[in-house]
Design goal:
Distance between the termini: 45 Å
Number of domains: 2
Structural class: alpha+beta
CATH architecture of the largest domain: Alpha-Beta Complex
Radius of gyration: 23 Å
Number of helices: 6
Order of helices and strands: EEEEEHEEEEHHHEHHEEEEEE
Largest sheet: 5 strands, mixed
CATH class of the largest domain: Alpha Beta
Length: about 280
Amino acid sequence: MSEWKEVVIRDLGTVITGKTPSKNNPKDWGDEMPFITPSDYGSYGKVALTSKRKLSKDGIERFYDKVLPKNSVLVTCIGSDMGKIVMNGVEVVTNQQINSIVPDLDKITPDYLYYLLVSLYKTLRIYGGDGTAVPIVNKGNFEKIDAIIPIITEQKAIAEVLSSLDDKIDLLHRQNKTLEAMAETLFRQWFIEEADDEWELTNLGEVVEIYDNKRIPISKMEREKMKYGILYPYYGAATIMDYVNDYIFDGEYILLGEDGTVRTEEGYPVSMALKTGTKLAL
C-alpha cells in the first residue's frame, strides 16, 4: 500500500457555498435545474437527481457562479442536519446551508471524496460546535478540515468496494419497500375490503396497552454520560438516535412515531416492531 498524504479540504477541489434567491425575484423559480436544500436529503441515497424546488433559466443565469457540475459532493453544514453528504448526478444549485466541493480530478475521485466526507461526520460536528444552539461550519472552517488520502488508483479501488456495498444496501431497501407494499395490500384486502360484517368495531386502546407515559426522554448531554458498560438502543421518533447503558422496556413492542412530520412517503406514521428480548430506552 502506498503512503497516504495529509491534506485539508481546500486541497481537494473548489469549495462553493450555496445561496438562496431573493423573494423579490420570483422569476428565478421554475423547473430547469434542481435547487437543493437540507430538507431534500431525506429522499436521497448516495446521488441527488432532483429537488423539491427548481430554478428557472433566469435563476440559473443569476446564480451561474453557484452552479455545481455533476459529481460534486454536497455537505450540509448547519443545524441538526449537519454532516449529511450527497453527490449530484446532474448540475444543481444549493442554498447557503450547504458547502460543496467540486473535486480536483488530478487529486481525488468524486466517489472517494464522497466516502471520505461520510467518514468525517464526527469531525464536521466538532467543527460546527455540536451541542450549541445552532451548530454551523462556515466555508473558512470547512476548507481547513484535515484528512488523509491515498493515490488515485487506491482511491478507485476503495471507492469501488464501498459503492458495491451501497448498491447492495439500496437493493435491500427497495426489496423491503416491495414487501411492505405487498403486506399492506394483503392487510387491506383481508381486514378492510373483505371484512366480516360480524366483526366488532372497537378502539385501539381497548385491545392494546399503551406505554407512552412511561417514556423517559434523555438529553444528548445526559446520554454522553451513559456510554460505558452494556449499551442499549435509544429510539427517537423514527430510528435509533443513540446507545445508552440503561433501558426501560424489555419485550415485544411496536414503536409508532407520534409526530405528524414523522411519516412514510405514503403519509403513514413510521412504525417499528421489536422482538422479545429487545431492550430499549426511549
